[in-house]
Structure formats: C-alpha cells, structure tokens
Amino acid sequence: MAADTPIALNGLARALIQQGRLTEADVISCSAAKAGSASGSLLQELAERKLMSLREAARFAAQTFGYPLLDLAAIEKQQIPRDAVDRKLIQKHQVVPLARRQNRLTLAVADPSNMRALDEIRFQTGAQLDLVVVEADKLLRLVETLSETAEDALRGLTGEDFDMELLDQEAPGEASGDEANADVDDTPVVRFIQKVLVDAINEGASDIHFEPYEKYYRIRVRTDGVLREIAQPPLMLKERMAARIKIISRLDISEKRVPQDGRMKLTLSKTKAIDFRVSTLPTLHGEKIVMRILDPSSAMLGVDALGYEPDQKKALLAAIDRPYGMILVTGPTGSGKTVSLYTCLNMLNKAGVNISTAEDPAEINLAGINQVNVNEKAGLTFATALRAFLRQDPDVIMVGEIRDLETAEISVKAAQTGHLVLSTLHTNDAPGTLERLRNMGVAPFNIASSVIMITAQRLARRLCSCKQPVDIPVEALLHAGFRADELDGSWQPFGPVGCERCKGSGYKGRVGIYQVMPISEEMTHIIMTNGNSLDIAAQAEREGVRDLRQSGLLKVRQGVTSLEEVLATTNE
C-alpha cells in the first residue's frame, strides 16, 4: 500500500509504523488528510482521531530520536530569544527558540525528524541546533503568542473602546523632530499609555512606575500606599514607551544617561485636568519612569475629609487664623504633608490675602496663589525665593521644606515680622521638630517666638465597607497602647476582608493620623531653657495632646482602620 501512495512519510511517521505503535493505513490516512499543512499537523490529526495523544506522541518522539522531553509550561515567555529565529520560519515550521549561547541554539520542536525545517533554520541562524521535544498543542499556542506583534499585545491590553483623544499636548514644538518618528508616535503605544494613566486616576493611585528589567517590562501603580503590578507590556517596546512619555513631558528624548524631571497634563473633560510630575532614571536595562499624579481636587477636600479629630481641627483652624507665626507639618515622604498644607492655603486663599509659595517643585496648581519652583542650578533656592517674597508684600508664605539654617532663619524672621509662614520638616513627631530646628542652629529664642503649632502626621489605609469585626486578645490591645479603662466593651475592632470594590485588599482609601501640638507658654519656657524633645513630649501629654499612636488607636475604636495598620504606621 505504501508503494502505491503518493504520500511521502517523514521519519516520525515511519518510526510509528516500524515500532508498531500505529498501522501503516492509519498513518498514511492522517498524512493524506493533512498534506500540505503546517509542520506538526500529522500529530494533531492523530490526536483528533484519538489514535495517539499529543503527550504520548511527544514522549515517543523523544525516546525514538534521543532528544530531551520538555514541558513548555516551565518556560517563561519573557526569556525566549524570539529574535534568534526569523518570525516567518517560526510560523512556517512551528518551532520556538528557547535559548542561544554563542553558536548554539536550543530549539523546541514537536517533530525532530523534520530535516527540511531544521536545515532552513541552521542556514538562517548559522547556529548548531540543540533540539528538545515538546507537545504539539502547547508548541502551537506558544508560536501564536510569539507571532503576535508588540502592537497586537498592546491592543489586547488596551481594548478597542478606548478614547484616543485624551492627552493634552501643550506648547507646540515642545519636542524635537524625533516626535514625527513612527516608532514613537505609533497609535498602540499612545493608546496603551493613555489607558494606563486613566485607569490609575480612576483607581485613585498616587504614582505610576514604568520599570524595565533584563527579561521583562512591568508597570506598577501605588494605591493607598501599596505598589501593585497592573501590566507587563512587551519588553521590545521599552524604548518607544519611554520616548513617548518623555515627549509629552517635554523632556529630551535623546538624553538617556542622566535623570530628567518634567510635567505633563491629562485632560479628562472640559472641567477636569490632571497634572503629572514625571521623573526618569537611567537603570541597567533602560530608563525607569515614575509619574506622580497631582490631582488639584485633593486640596479642595476640606479639613474634615483629612481625618482630623474635632479638637485637632479646632486647634488647627485657630492657628491658621493667627495673623503671624510659623506652622510646621512634619512626617516622612508620602505622609500627606503637601495636601495638608494646601488644604490650609485653600482656606486662607481669599481676595484680600497675598499668598506666595516656594516648592521643589510645585505639586498642586491652585488659582490665586503665587507659586515658585525652586531651581538650585539657576541659583533660585528656598532662601532666595523667601527673600524675594518679603519684598512682594506677602500675607502668607509657604516654604516647601526647611532644609538648611539659612532657610530656617529667614522663615523665622518672616514669622516674627508679621507674616504667617507654613512649611514642612522631616522629623518623626511634633516634639522632635523643635529639637531639629535647634540642631540646625536656630536660636532657642527665635524658635520660641515664631513657632505657634506643629503637626505630625501619617497616612493609614482606611478599611473598606466589607470590613468585619475581629476578636483581638486583651493583652494585645494593652500592648498596643490602649488603657485598661478603654477596654470596656463599648466598641468593637474591625479588620480587613476583601471584596471586588477594594480588589481583595480589604482597604479603600487612606485617612490621616495626626499629632496636633499648639505651642503653649509652658512649652515656650522649656524651649528657652534648652529642654529636649522628651521634656516637650511630656508637657504635650499633660496638655492633652495625643501622640500619633494614640490618635491611631482612636481611629481603631471608631472602626476607620485596623489595629495592624496603626501598628505598622506609628511608633510607640
């Protein structure tokens, strides 16, 4: 029968017949049904007719021809050197390159006897082939994935219903002629970046990270203080995505050796636009880009939405209503200091008040306020800006951060001469701020006569509406800082559960935890007599000022956050 048939049997088909695994008639019939089709089709036909499973066929081919058997599920697609073999040959012969080392190429095949395919690949690559046998169905799926272009992958991540006209291109001529390059301005990359930005805004994220690595490229967003991966676009697009972001941020796309800082704007509607602060950083495998989302509406939330307790709110409002003096906000990076300051500025922002700010850089644009970006390379430091402000007839001055003695002394003098000064410092708590100023070199008399209030703050994640009551041992509550008389059974602690609304985390949004410490006469006396932060903290406690831990525990009693979150964000 074989002599009468025009069907040419390859090595695998002949081996199946010779070893008695299948009859000659079955093999010829399957080969005839799939004549002229892609490589590996004989195996698929055998599987469809249930003559032999693809797993059995792969095991048979490996044993017969003496090649290793590999499960493609163990292979990371990001590590596949897809450029090692021409894409057309990958599709034509249904093979996948797995690794290349010098002149040797590891190749995944379903039929190792297909000499025509192997000869073509040897000729194209100039490499010696090390074959591994894999199951034909898994190989076919992987080939389809690798054959998908980077643009197709982005379209799959983006979807077809995404609005294309969202990025607000300010300032014509903002980029070089490279902007016209199709590799930079191609539609899939634009669509994908826009979708990432819009999704991050809708999710309430504060930062977006574009991170290139050796084997993959990932995008993460920080929501409620926690980073979460949202996508892994094709690695080959890292240069085009970086170039696109740099163009719309008005950065130099040809400069990849040094960090750059820029800004961009995303127009969501006629009434709402979101600013982004963009920072690039050269890394081993490309430029990492971090975009800080600057939502002006965060400054419009009002003091009630920030989480101040009624007594803390009353003390804060009394301080900003003073005609002069210095109000300091302290806390680590990302603790919400800027939003707190701008909330105060928004309340002070009236037609009869002249407000000037010096920041590095200005994060929230607020109409009616004169904002200055510090530029130390150009000689515009905080101290220089402050001196200029004092000649601009100011009522309220906001300094982004007091970093050195010169800035501190000018701020103190401004507060002493009839101006309200708001600023930030990096200290752990409110009492430590006064000692920090003294260590900078500010005289105790100047501190005592200028500072009227210090607010320390942290941000804790707010429990989602899916929260449930939890049982916490009394010993653990006492160790956390609760007093015995507070454990009277009149309140119930809650813990996170997780639902679709909070994406399984159990938390949605954040709430501020504050230590609001007005400077009393007794504290002034301690400062004047060179008392330390422990003395000031003891006096604050006598005056009823709650420290950060106590304020956090109050939020636990109110069911706003969990005990674990308070313990993680505050020190005892």
From TrEMBL:
Q: Name one GO biological process term.
A: pilus assembly
- State the signal peptide span: none
Which of UniProt's keywords are assigned here?
A: ATP-binding, Cytoplasm, Nucleotide-binding
Q: Which residues form the Bacterial type II secretion system protein E domain?
A: 390-404
Q: Which SMART domains match?
A: AAA (SM00382)
Source superkingdom: Bacteria
Q: Name one GO cellular component term.
A: cytoplasm
Q: Which Pfam families match?
A: MshEN (PF05157), T2SSE (PF00437)
The keyword Protease appears for this protein: no
Its localization reads: Cytoplasm
Q: Which InterPro entries match?
A: AAA+_ATPase (IPR003593), ATPase_typ4_pilus-assembl_PilB (IPR013374), P-loop_NTPase (IPR027417), T2SS/T4SS_dom (IPR001482), T2SS_E_N_sf (IPR037257), T2SS_GspE_N (IPR007831)
* Keyword Nucleotide-binding recorded: yes
GO molecular function ontology, one term from the record: ATP hydrolysis activity
What family is it from?
Belongs to the GSP E family.
Protein name, as recorded: Type IV-A pilus assembly ATPase PilB
The coding gene here is pilB
